[in-house]
Amino acid sequence: MRAVPLVEPTRTVPVGLVTVARQPGSVMARALREIAGHTDVAAALERLPED
User: Fold this and answer.
1) 17, 23, 29, 35: least buried by Cβ within 10 Å?
2) pTM score, two decimals?
3) 11: confidence class by pLDDT, cuts 50, 70, 90
């Protein structure tokens, strides 16, 4: 597996996470929400290697 940078279109900032509203919630969804709440996602995306 490898990451391949996209040439077009240029990266944009909007990122979303959609989860279901049922109880008990998914452990993975809770973990993703926790991480996303404490992470500057836009800055993390900008630090990705160009090639």
Assistant:
1) 23
2) 0.45
3) low
Q: How many residues does the chain have?
A: 51
Looking at every residue in the chain, the average pLDDT score rounds to 79
Torsion of CA 43, 45, 49, 51, to 10 degrees: -140
| Cα distance between residue 34 and residue 11, in whole Å | 24
Residue 45 backbone phi and psi in degrees, to 5: -65, -35
Residue with tokens 């990122």: 15
What is the reported pLDDT for 16?
A: 74
Rounded distance between C-alpha atoms, residue 31 and residue 44, angstroms: 17
Structure tokens of 42? 């836009």
